[in-house]
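Repro:
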Amino acid sequence: MLDTSQIQLIESDVESARITLYNLSDELVDHICCAIEDQMRNGKSFDEAYSLLKEQTGIKVLQSIQENTLYLTDKKYRLMKTTMKITGNVSLALLALGTLFKIFHWPGAGPLLVVGFVLVCFFFFPAVIYINRREEGSKSPMLLNLSILIGGILLMMGILFKVMHWPIANLLLQGGWFFVLFLFLPTLLYAKLKDAKSGFEKRVYVLGVVALIIFELATMFKMMHWPGAGPLMILGSLLLVAVFLPLYTNMRFKNAELKAGQFIYLITISMYAVVLTALLAMNVSKDILGCFVREQDNGTAINHYFEQKESHFAAAVGTDSVAMMNAEKIKFVSEEAAKVKNEIQSLRLNLVQEIEQVDKQAALAAISESIKINKKDNYDQIDHMLFDQDGNGLANSLKGKLDVYLEQILKVTSSNKELSENISKILDTSSKKNYDSMVSWEEANFKHNPLISTMALLTALERNVSMVESSAIQYINQ
């Protein structure tokens, strides 16, 4: 009863449902044709019968039939489907917990994140790609699947390495973005343009891919601390949210391919992705960090002043016969101060070199002009470098050297009680009360502290050491 054009229309609709199993596709076409013919025998036209059947069946039902068929007949597909469900839920829970632990600086964040990312990268993600390839069949280009598989794994491992401050993190991220930006997205665009039914649909897909490329480039620029991340993020976000998303959802609604629930889900996920990523480019903390930059630069200038002043004292000792009597004491004070200041300068240099991943010359330039430091807000590496698992580390070592220096200076100034008390206050490294508990000097000053703030604190410590040195030398010369 159905003519050739009507059968071809049914075949086209079944094909649009991505029914790639050949025998199943033919059987579904036969089943739909028989159902329409039954309706037509009851007096309905082809259009009426077919519209009624599509309302009852729809693309989702056809896809579900193929999925169930694959699940029952393909053992490997069934295994990958189970793997995807289990690892997807477990990895999501681990990553959520790891992120929460990381935010609150609780122990165990690292192992949770590592296991979560490993499950996502090497179990969940490959299973998703395999299932998609199996369901799409030859319609899904091999390059599309390979590029997103390799690029996605590299990106996720790069993020893990970045969070854990492991080496080659930037190399992994750049490799991942190369696959996503220059292989996956162009291939995806080609596939979408090939299936597009109108010129408007093609333009929407082109706009979406261009917006995604700009947005991903902005994310890469931000994570690599390259200039231009902010403008790119604004442009990419506007193109995605204000232009592409309304056009795309409107197009899908007109084609009856998007339901209200799916629309809400699409909007929610899109906004989460854009907002959370855009937070990387926000400049809210710029003014706050700028205060520490100014404090660090001012502290450096003050330290230079003390260095010149101490040189003047040293010259005076060499020419003043009275001061020569106390030359040994002054030499001792200067040498002890130099030891502590060298320790502080070495620590500051080491922090900048490790966090910025630059050589010694570039680190010295950044210290002298701290606005050049890119990763001003990095605090994870500070914790990693200054504190070990036992709560000691470089911060504890610095405290020990300050305590020794204070003890040595107090021996020299012991006859002047007021001066000794002032020096003790300046170099006080005792534990501090924080609400109802006591916090060590190291934790109070350096724990969870961003790089630029830590540098400012170290510079202030160096200044305090110079002030104590200067006061002790003046006292000796009296």
